[in-house]
Design goal:
By secondary structure, this protein is mostly helical. It is about 75% helix and about 0% strand. It is built from 23 helices and no strands. The chain has helices spanning about 5-10, 15-30, 35-45, 50-55, 60-65, 70-75, 85-105, 115-140, 145-175, 180-190, 190-200, 220-240, 245-255, 255-270, 275-305, 305-325, 330, 335-360, 370-380, 380-390, 390-400, 405-415, 420-430. Helix 4 runs antiparallel to helix 21 (about 390-400), helix 13 (about 245-255) packs across helix 19 and helix 14 (about 255-270) packs parallel to helix 20 (about 380-390). The longest helix has about 35 residues, at about 145-175. The chain is globular, with a radius of gyration of 21 Å. The two termini are about 20 Å apart. The model is unreliable at about 1-10, about 210-215 and about 435-445 (pLDDT under 50).
Amino acid sequence: MGVTRRTVLSSLGQPKVAVMLMLGFSSGLPFFLTGNTLGYWLRDQGTTLQAIGFLSWVGLAYSLKFLWAPVVDRLDAPLFGSLGRRRSWMLLTQALIAVGLFGMASTGISHGLAAIGALAVLVAFASSTQDIVVDAWRIEAAADSDELGLLSAAYQLGYRAAIIVTDALILISAGHFGWRISYAAMAVLTAVGMTATVLAIEPLRTRPPSTSSAVPARLASVRGFTEAVVGPFVEFFRAYGPVALLMLAMISLYRLPEYLMGPMANPYYHDLGLSKDVVGTVRASIGLVGSLLGIAAGGLSAVRIGYFRTLIVGLFLQSVVIASFAILAYTGPDVRVFGAIMAFDNFGAAFAGVALVTYMSTLTTIGYTATQYALLSSAYTYVGKFAKGVSGVMVESLASGRTLLEGYALFFIGAGLLGVPALLLCVVLARLQRQPIRPDPASAP
């Protein structure tokens, strides 16, 4: 059954969707606090672009999460096991995120980059683990493919709301109250995710296909380890064959332009002379509108024209808008130009995000949901997470013999052009495959 306006509106009243919104917010909350926003804090304190770029490597936890995803798939979390497998991991990781953010707030930059870097690693590790289980809950809790699309859109909406808070409102707060108080406030907001975890219903469909009629082996045994660690990958490649390699390659390159430019965006605004109040206000107003429109357009596009065409449109938008950041190097801190680029950037990023999340969600198998989705969502960060660590070196190298702003401009244009390989892979996959079809969750064992 297709998604109609009436079914979407009626579904918005479901408690499951409200929980998904809150969990999406919880997933998005820590992301920039250990990345782009932390970079703004560091630049504010005079940290070099090279150091900011290297410190962004704490985000590699998001690229490596598939390594511990089998544990999340097969074992209950310590301390909170009575809540069920998915909910226990949610609550544990949310508590660790809160501890890490409070630690960053109390430590601050004055104690050195090593201390705040270590706390950022803790937050990133806990956040990436939370992503594993929230993604699994979203897919397993869906009653059918239409509801999966609805929950994916709700997740993106909650996630984008958290981005507005941690990438925009926090700048206004930091400008008036300081970075440490602002980070402490972000730690308090982890209560949103904890509340959602308490309200969530534990999904029933978590058993791997190979053990649907038998008792799962212990993870410590050879059979249990094989089922938990090897099984999800074998099943994924069995389902898609050699095309799976092209899928992973496309996914790994899809967000490369956005990841590469990420650590340099806030230092760029700082060096342009834009105040934190201006950046935060524009992001929280025009940027929010752009995000909401992008989410709506991405979801509608996936339903109307299919996943691959939506992926191609999203990639085109993302690449063009990232290159357009170079315009600011020549206009200077013009708020009108900055606002237009922010609206375009948020629209393109949200559109591309919905396209990629929806596409990846169709590729998982119930029972291996957490591990397989962790593989896919890790894949789209592999290249970008490694590349962004040297983004500061790139800007400073490109600025050699030029002004710093000219170096930034060349960097953003180059980052935008890096979307071309993923675009070509999308076209190839579209020719090799029809619309990817995921078995209806309701028919899974």
